[in-house]
Amino acid sequence: MASSEFGRAVALVRDARRIVALTGAGISTESGIPDFRGPGGSWTKYDPAVFAYPQFVGDPESRKAYWRWSVEFWPQVAAAKPNDAHLALVALERAERLRCVVTQNVDGLHGLAGSRDVIEIHGNGTRTVCLSCRTSYDRNRIQERLLGGDTDPRCEACGGVLKPDVVLFGERMPQGPTERAFDEAESCDLLIVVGSSLVVNPAARLVPQAKQNGAKVVIVNLDRTLYDGIADVVLRGRAAETMGSLVGEALST
Ligand code: APR
After folding, report:
1. 28 CB less than 6 Å from ligand 1?
2. Is 110 considered catalytic here?
3. What is the model's pLDDT at position 20?
4. In this structure, which residue's CA is closest to atom 8 in ligand 1?
5. What pLDDT, in 10s, does the model give residues 80-130?
6. Ligand 1, atom 5, residue with closest C-alpha
7. Is pLDDT of 50 > 70?
8. Is the whole-model pTM more than 0.85?
9. Mutation choice for ligand 1 from 197, 199, 220, 223, CB with most ligand atoms inside 8 A
């Protein structure tokens, strides 16, 4: 990708020493997991309001609708492998240029890729937890139960309601990870956004937070985002190729 914008992004990554990456569903689409708001994304097919926290906890029929969607969606996540965009962030971390990845994704692919410091502000969908006793179950085990006809899986220890360990709409954010994400955004010298529409808060507010504290901002995204206007560089391209080239060039100069 030869462009003046790309060259400017390479220079910013090359000169940065405290990089934070903010990733969204767009970094995982090339690993086979659909995003939410891009063409054909999940929220173009399902109404996200159905999957909101109050409904999940309070209405068994809504909870069963969630599990009917999840039993179809999970195999794509379980089969997904990290792509070059995830691996580019691992390379930046190993070069001691990247402090951490803040991810909105719940697919666990950054950890699978080898990233060591990942702040999962929307939780992790590979875990399913009991809302009463907090017992944790591997999501693959729950998949077996769903495929075996269980429509509303309950805790084997206490009979409580089970829920994927992810933040649903209307659910409180995990306090520790969220606070740390904002601290990191405040002290970074470069924020790289990869594959997010930046429409969901509080995650999206990390971008102005970093900018206000003097960081440069690079956005890598196929479509326009809410914060393109405050970015120092916007690279309109696919995450795997763009991040692979960007980090490859920045670390070799
Ligand atoms: N390369 C670059 N960008 C991509 C790619 C790709 N291969 N594939 C998709 N994109 C872009 C899309 O153009 C879109 O703008 O990634 C963005 C993904 O945006 P969303 O689908 O809104 O996903 P995200 O920003 O992560 O959503 C945030 O919303 O539904 C909630 O909790 C959910 O964490 C999620 C949050």
Report:
1. no
2. no
3. 98
4. 26
5. 999 999 999 999 999 999 999 999 999 999 999 999 999 999 999 999 999
6. 26
7. yes
8. yes
9. 197
Exposed, middle or buried: residue 123 (CB in 10 Å: 0-12, 13-18, 19+)?
Answer: buried
Confidence of residue 39 (pLDDT cuts 50, 70, 90): confident
For residue 2, what pLDDT is reported? 54
**Residues contacting 245, CB < 8 A, separation 6+:** 1, 6
Take residue 92 and report the two structure tokens written for it: 């930046």
Q: Which of 97, 122, 139, 145 is catalytic?
A: 122
Domains of the chain, CATH where assigned? 1-33+81-122+172-253 (3.40.50.1220), 36-79+125-166 (3.30.1600.10)
- In the prediction, which pLDDT does 247 show? 98
Ligand 1 pocket residue status of 245, Cβ below 6 Å: no
Ligand 1 in reach of 223 Cβ (< 6 A): yes
Residue 207 Cα to ligand 1 midpoint, Å, equals 15
Distances (CA, A) of 142 to 54, 74, 146, 155, 239: 21, 10, 6, 10, 31
Handedness of CA 158, 156, 135, 74 (dihedral sign): negative
Tens digit of each residue's pLDDT (9 = 90 or more) over 56-85: 999 999 999 999 999 999 999 999 999 999
168 Cβ below 6 A of ligand 1: no
Whether the CB of 89 sits within 6 Å of ligand 1: no
